[in-house]
Design brief:
Elements lengths: L15 H6 L24
């Protein structure tokens, strides 16, 4: 899980890629963790 809080004035869309860079989805077998999750849930306001 990754959480990123912003002031909100400039919009949250530019923060999506930096937020996803913090995510590491573990693999059941060998190899590096995946960097792209199956789902993203976001809440605004």
């Amino acid at each position: 899980m990754a959480v990123l809080l912003t002031a909100g004035q400039a919009g949250d869309n530019p923060q999506l890629l930096p937020l996803l860079e913090q995510v590491a989805v573990a693999r059941s077998g060998p190899g590096h963790p995946r960097r792209r999750p199956d789902r993203v849930i976001a809440r605004t306001g």
